[in-house]
Amino acid sequence: MATVRGFLYPQTATGRSSLIPSPPWHYSGDLLTVEYRTDPARVAELLPEPLSPAPEDPGAVAIIWADWQSCSESREELLDPVRAQYKECFVVVRCSFEGRTYSRCVYIWVDKDFAIGRGLHQGYPKKLGSIHQTRPHPYGPAPRLEPGARFGATLAAADRRLAEAVVTLREPSETNGFVNGHPMAHHRFLPSIEPGQAPALNELVEAGAAGFEAGQAWKGEAELTLLDAPTEEMSLLTIEEPIGAYYRQVGVVWNGGRRLA
Amino acid sequence: MATVRGFLYPQTATGRSSLIPSPPWHYSGDLLTVEYRTDPARVAELLPEPLSPAPEDPGAVAIIWADWQSCSESREELLDPVRAQYKECFVVVRCSFEGRTYSRCVYIWVDKDFAIGRGLHQGYPKKLGSIHQTRPHPYGPAPRLEPGARFGATLAAADRRLAEAVVTLREPSETNGFVNGHPMAHHRFLPSIEPGQAPALNELVEAGAAGFEAGQAWKGEAELTLLDAPTEEMSLLTIEEPIGAYYRQVGVVWNGGRRLA
Amino acid sequence: MATVRGFLYPQTATGRSSLIPSPPWHYSGDLLTVEYRTDPARVAELLPEPLSPAPEDPGAVAIIWADWQSCSESREELLDPVRAQYKECFVVVRCSFEGRTYSRCVYIWVDKDFAIGRGLHQGYPKKLGSIHQTRPHPYGPAPRLEPGARFGATLAAADRRLAEAVVTLREPSETNGFVNGHPMAHHRFLPSIEPGQAPALNELVEAGAAGFEAGQAWKGEAELTLLDAPTEEMSLLTIEEPIGAYYRQVGVVWNGGRRLA
Amino acid sequence: MATVRGFLYPQTATGRSSLIPSPPWHYSGDLLTVEYRTDPARVAELLPEPLSPAPEDPGAVAIIWADWQSCSESREELLDPVRAQYKECFVVVRCSFEGRTYSRCVYIWVDKDFAIGRGLHQGYPKKLGSIHQTRPHPYGPAPRLEPGARFGATLAAADRRLAEAVVTLREPSETNGFVNGHPMAHHRFLPSIEPGQAPALNELVEAGAAGFEAGQAWKGEAELTLLDAPTEEMSLLTIEEPIGAYYRQVGVVWNGGRRLA
């Protein structure tokens, strides 16, 4: 009998066809983050057991746009950039497990299949979307990183716009926000192939960055609009109180995590 | 603590955001099938334990293009067709398990995220691709279903063309081919979040159609070309001997399966 | 000096690179048409001189979704269907010129560049969009062509949904509507490369089908919603009175027209 | 009778629907340029009268990848970046007209319709394509701007890859190459709507940047591969002798040109 290889499907004799190579995965990217407070009940209802709401500021939400270049240990994807570049928009809340505070991604859209594949492993609930964010640039009309600089960011899925933001930067910042600042606590879930049976997989995992470097963060404020759609519920996380908005360039390494429950 | 719902991720209080609703899933579609024989060793190396090669004709391969409209029990997706329509190209071989012959999809590309989500449940190793196939039409230059009718079909992924076929129909057919005619035996696989540990999920499942209706099949022959790419191995299934080509319209219901191992 | 060839740009020594080959162009397609009356002033303001509003029913509008397979005289595009298939959604009104009534496309979105190229020649004001329409199918959940059959149709551009329709068929129909039933009167327009100068091209052309065949038309009614967007004005054509909705399969040949003014 | 407005089609009472607003147009972008020499006869055959080959180095070719953010005078597109961002890959040669040397774009692919619209005005022969290029980044695995930095760039159209390059930077450079350094001499061409008649438009126009700023250019060398396709001829511009490769960030203003012939 054959031995098949590959970090994810499809597995073959060589492993070369796998939708994603094995970690570590390396990322260079630009993050545009909008933080606000919603009704804490809207966050709590997204936290299945054994998670509970964060003890402080339980209604805090971050919506993050990210423009990535990513690769495996070989770096080869960077030279065939259709295999390295992707954009994403994701919604993060905080939660508590065994007395520790975690970040948790409750909604996320990406624009490439390899990013969906990594999300399966990491527990990010990825759908496809169309994601755009203004990039800073030193020449021409695009914004410089300076007070008053303005960045747009949008998300659409299934031909419907779901979110729009305009961020205005004010000054350098000590932080890039606080909602997405903890290790992630995610469920990995797959139903049983047999109707009515217990899930085939339903585990709680923890993961964080194995490496991180970043430039100067900037902060400011955002105008944010969330739009309804038949198969989406992001707009239920209504904007009750703005917190702030941030821009930062980062380099990240991801290399696995551990099972919590 | 909250109860979250949803057949797949993301799970929420209502379940409305799930990438896919629960089965049964209903499909209307057009299939263009090309069958041929490759070196049986190329098939065998794609069959992990406890599977073994099919006892007869173990090098038979089917490459199938399908143009689908699909929906859940509510049928609502059909009226918002961006959520119902998708195309796919997939490669099927046969294998043996406990004395029975199964079909098995070894490679597959689709063009929508909800199709990826259904594939996670069913064990289809889905990537994104760009898939096209000629459709029959009663008026104008597109082919009628008649002797001599010619249909083109192509597959690309990551901006590279991977497969091209031109099918010429000759006559009505008793069958739509034989390679994809058995229940499917698929692995559902997810690595451990902890490097070096055993997979979190690695199960063999069986599933077939819970309902099936179909029109008259047609048969003919195909010119088929498979092209190489850095992250694909479909072209290793070299075309040693053509078998035939088929066109058929079908209606399918899928409603779960059972675990084999 | 060289002679360059090609029906449209880019012109080369062989003409092979042209975005579109020369007419005649052949089409097989399915049309879903929604007709209604808007404020006639909204139509009149879209009719530049020397056009004037149609003498009868000047507020009539047709919004048409079409799912096409198209090709040149060689038919070769049909066997490489990424070069043949496209979808479009377009808005047609009627107008008058020298005592004759014409149809006129005032807005149109397509999903392929070769369709944009043909539109440049024909005077259709084509933008890119994402267009979907339910297709009838003889098996599974998709609708048959029968009383009560329901078809959805949607249009989006720049990640915003612009139009949605659900058409319910009632019975066979003598016609496929009347708004798009005349020869087309279109302007072909290009500004001068020199700011402030008269247009380089601004001509009124007439064109119609050089060949036409069609199946049984069906009629019914539609729910239609038009949505606003920053760079679109289709929603100004407000729905004041529904007229009807139609489904028809057609074959069309287009082979040039004549200059009117 | 109505007066319609709009820089390009569709023209309406307000002009708001125009595929593109009027110039000036502003651009921020990153250019990756590969220069080489081909057989001068392959360039000459792409130069229709009244153009002739450049007197010096008539076989020089530049293939340029560009990653743009662009906007009109209002800058509003920058805050809705799906309307501002696009990528392109284009092929430039040089030619001579009335004793002056011009640059001329002979092939170009873009990924947005507003870029096609601007090309109609400027005389760029734009098709749709899928274009990717590695971006420099200060953190993580993406390259810094430094000796040895490597950038990939790819082009595909109609699901076929057409060009691939890997550029390795060596040192800062006085120039960003020389092939694309002249004012552009382009034809604007539209056939007559009447078969067999003279073109409705066939004019030679000149245009260059109305404003330009740029960062330090870098030079190095490239591995470049051009691939054949049924409707493309870029690969006829065979690579006979490499010249060099360049990276530069630029800001550009475009504001019309003048008619040459």
From TrEMBL, chains A, B, C, D:
Q: Which residues form a coiled coil?
A: none
Annotated InterPro entries: Acetoacetate_decarboxylase (IPR010451), ADC_dom_sf (IPR023375)
Q: Name one GO molecular function term.
A: lyase activity
Which Gene3D superfamilies does the UniProt record give? Acetoacetate decarboxylase-like
**Which superkingdom heads the taxonomic lineage of this protein's source?**
Bacteria
Pfam families attached to this UniProt entry: ADC (PF06314)
Q: List the protein's name.
A: Acetoacetate decarboxylase
